[in-house]
Amino acid sequence: MARVAALLSGRGEQQSTHPVDEVLPAAKLALYGFQHVLAFYAGAVIVPIIVGGALKLSTEQLVYLINADLFTCGIASIVQAWGIGRIGARLPLIQGVTFTAVSPMIAIGLGAGGGTAALLVVYGAVITAGLATFAFAWLPARVFRTVMRLFPPVVTGTVITVLGIVLIPVGLGDAAGGVGSPDFGDPKNFAYAGGTMLFILLLMRIGRQFLSSIAILLGLVGGTVAAFLFGDAHFGDVGRADWIGITTPFHFGTPKFEWFPILLMLIVMLITMVETTGDTYAVGGIVDKKVDSETVARALRADGAATALGGMLNSFPYVAFAENVGLVRMTKVKSRFVVVAAGAFMIVLGLLPKAAAVVASIPNAVLGGAATVMFAMVALAGIQTLAKVDLKEERNALVVGVSLAFALLPATVPVLFEKHMNADLSSLLNSGVTLGATAAIVLNLAFNGPAEDETPALPDAGQATAEAVPAPTA
């Protein structure tokens, strides 16, 4: 038992030098793989929970989304780590649904009227954007490198910061009980959210490395248990859920392909390409494997294929998860086959509706407390990346400052998008992430031009993300 505890805590393998291509014994693969799942789980399921809640889906539909997400995450992670031909980086990279897509997908869904009908519009955009990303990653190396020069640290840092800042109000809304709920703003909701947040922070402050890496998950469990004891968490849907459930393609119907949502999702995938590129360089440095433009291209092909598959299997866009890059750094376990094992675990979890029903029963306030911490850590990751930028240089300062201002426009002046734009244009622009990221790219080109060489710039973005996010935030 002591040996198992040491493995789980990471203490027993702090000096491990398992090469990236080494296949570990089955027991170690299972232990380390399950650890990756624990570090990843909360970040994986929170996106379908947030999107499904915003689109007013039923609990049964939400359970299906969670199962579809986990099932597709497992397949995507195996493809990324194992590799199929020239698809997949063959590095220990976990694939998960990107937070970058949350606000745009909600905007698309609400513009389409909410409910499952809105999901069909979202899935049409996701499939198209995934195929476009896949195709982009097959461009000649010279063209590929030229495009990636558009994303120096001043852009990637701004985009990640914007992502966190825009999502924090989503977490706070849930902390208040969920926007539109009858008890929105009730002090008891803030008590649950605050208690959950305090527990997470306490675990991250005093916990060992492994305990800190799953602090979000434990916070969700602790907050839900407390809410249950006080009669505010209900698990009736768990008993009604099936033990086994199969994710089938196009479960909610035939996707709808509308050009404005597709354009919005293409912008999302452009941002996720920056994230995956940074994480690929970061994990390559950790496992001592050289990363070149072909490695990045293989990683992005896996992103594109997973995203297109996600749209078909009722899930969302995929990206390499930064927190699992951090976990590789902490445990010093470099084998990519650990991620393959984690992918197998996720596929199994994706076949268990009862497990998803438990997650769907987490009270909004508890979820909000945990989500606020995660989103704040995303913003911190962006700030840490920007710390590597010379912000005393006025041109860089303008890129960051004006982009942040654009990102706050939809939340600050919603009437502009609700009453003074047509529905299509509003669905495209009514997203702080979209406006902020677009502004960062355009302003950087205007003031600084393309980066001279993307290779030294991109690892900083991924490195900062990996180091600044000790718990699920992706």
Gap between N and C termini: 32 Å
Supply the number of structural domains: 1
Radius of gyration equals: 21 Å
Helical content class: over 70%
Sheet with the most strands, sense and barrel status: 2 strands, antiparallel
Beta-strand content bin: under 5%
- Please trace the helix and strand order, writing H or E for each element: HHHEHHHHHHHHHHEHHHHHHHHH
- Name the average pLDDT: 76
Described by the principal axes of the CA atoms, the overall outline is: globular
Count the helices. How many? 22
Q: Work out the number of β strands.
A: 2
The largest sheet has its strands arranged as 1-2
Please state the structural category.
Answer: mainly alpha
Low-confidence stretches: 1-17, 454-474
How would you describe the overall organization of this protein?
The chain has 474 residues and is mainly alpha-helical. It has one domain. 70% of the residues lie in helices and 1% in strands. It is built from 22 helices and two strands. It has helices spanning 2-9, 26-54, 59-82, 102-111, 115-136, 141-148, 153-175, 187-206, 209-213, 215-229, 236-240, 259-286, 293-312, 322-331, 337-349, 353-360, 364-386, 394-412, 414-419, 423-429, 432-447, 454-468, and strands at 95-97, 318-320. The protein has a two-stranded antiparallel ribbon with strand order 1-2. Helix 3 runs antiparallel to helix 13 (293-312). The radius of gyration is 21 Å and the shape is globular. Mean pLDDT is 76; it is low at 1-17 and 454-474.
